[in-house]
Amino acid sequence: MTIQTAHPMKGSVLEEVKAFLLVNGLTFEGLPAFSCMLRDDEEKLIGTGSLDGKVLKYIAIAKTNQGEGLLAQIMTTLVTQAFANGHTHLFIFTKPSNLILFQPFGFFPIGETSQVLLMENRKDGISHYIKSLERETEEFLQNRKLSLSGEIGVIVVNCNPFTYGHRYLLEYAARQCSLLHVFVVSSDKSAFPSAVRLALVKEGTKDMINVLVHEASDYLVSSATFPAYFLKDKNKAGSVNCELDIAIFLRYIVPALKINRRFVGTEPLCNTTEAYNRQMEQMLGQQGIEFTEVARKQIGEVPISASLVRSLMAQGKFEELKALVPKSTYDFIRSEAGQAIADQLLMEKV
Fold first, then answer.
1. How confident is the model at residue 187 (pLDDT cuts 50, 70, 90)?
2. What is the pLDDT of residues 298-350, one digit of tens each?
3. Which of 130-144, 164-178, 258-272 is least confident?
4. What single DSSP character describes residue 289?
5. What is the share, in percent, of the chain residues with pLDDT greater than 70?
6. 63: buried, middle or exposed (CB in 10 Å: 19+, 13-18, 0-12)?
7. Which residues 6+ apart lie within 8 Å of 246 measured at CB?
8. What is the rounded radius of gyration, in angstroms, for the C-alpha atoms of the chain?
9. Sign (positive/negative) of CA torsion 65, 32, 28, 195?
10. How does residue 280 score in pLDDT terms, banded at 50, 70 and 90?
């Protein structure tokens, strides 16, 4: 028995793994950077596993070889590679019925719905994150000399990049609350890196006395990182992702930060996000959390959006950006790092 690795898979091996996953009830949804394939003495593929950043995925053992301890070899290979890549905090999205398969390898459940289970390899990982949010909040209130005499709100944003549209949404929400928590999605699946997006939001809101900006970490599940390869109905991936995201939000973040209101912007340009908002509204309402949807800020009849900003960047129309983004965002876009992003956007558009 041998184990084969690929950085990444290609050619006949890639096609072989796709077919193997399909036989085992999984579908291929994107090429991971690292994969391992377990083969028997006749070179037949009997097990697979892949690594997508911090997420372990495409883990499957042939039905005829289950119960032979092969999963341990795959998990060891994936975890070792992840550590070598600098990722020590790892996650698995899987079916709830697979809980007992991954627990022996040091993975613990975070959130669960009827269709998906999220696990991490730190027993108290999310507890430490929640405690850090509580400490940040306490220090923020003391430094700003604020008291929680009114509603406590929350907004989750990607801000790719931060625009006047985002600023308008945050200003509106901040006026309704004694404290507004803003979580910036952490996944690096956007044109602007997560560290840059977080910095631009902090810089663009530093004058707003009751707005506290957080890094979302890995616990507010981004649609960019949520895998659907194990779901039978791929069309429901967005709905499943939303359900898991809100379940984790309600279980951990709401009680810790005493949140009673969540704000979102309208989504006239994206049907997927619009459906996500409708499901969120229903789930939050069932738990007594007020859901407030704010109409997008417009220039003329055009909604301000990050996608419009990126489009103008790709076209090199930087002067037109001044009406769409705060000075801090514009200054970054015009920097060397910002120009590199614009060049990449142009290459993707060509």
1. confident
2. 988 888 999 999 999 999 999 999 999 999 999 999 999 999 999 999 988 75
3. 258-272
4. -
5. 98
6. exposed
7. 279, 280, 283, 284
8. 22
9. positive
10. very high
Is the distance from CB of 303 to CB of 270 less than 8 angstroms? no
- Whether residue 161 is preceded by a cis peptide bond, meaning omega within 30 degrees of 0, is yes
Measured between alpha carbons, how far is 2 from 43 in angstroms, rounded to an integer?
8
Backbone dihedral region for residue 37 (phi beyond 0: left; psi -120 to 50: alpha; all else: beta): beta
What residues have CB less than 8 Å from 124, skipping those under 6 apart? none
Q: How far is it, in rounded angstroms, from Cα 201 to Cα 207? A: 11
Please tell me the total number of residues recorded for the chain in this structure: 350
Percentages (nearest 5) of helix, strand, coil residues in the chain = 45, 20, 35
User: CA-CA distances (angstroms) from residue 123 to 108, 119, 126, 226?
Assistant: 6, 10, 8, 21
Strand boundaries in 40-130, DSSP class E: 45-52, 55-61, 91-94, 108-112, 117-120
| Kind and range of the H or E run holding 290 | strand 290-294
Does residue 229 register a pLDDT over 80? yes
Q: Does residue 303 have a cis peptide bond before it, meaning omega lies within 30 degrees of 0?
A: no
Decide: helix, strand or coil at residue 3: strand
Look-up of token digits 């800020």: 297
Question: With 90 as the cut, is the pLDDT of residue 222 above it?
Answer: no
Lowest-confidence range among 180-184, 229-233, 241-245? 229-233
Helix runs in 177-270, H state only = 194-204, 237-248, 254-257
Residue 172: is its pLDDT beyond 70? Answer: yes
d(CA 305, CA 228): 27
The structure tokens listed for 23 are 């036989």
All residues at 6 or more sequence positions from 134 whose CB lies less than 8 Å from its CB, including other chains: 256, 257
What letter does residue 121 receive in the DSSP assignment?
S
Nearest to 192 by CA among 348, 54, 341, 350: 341
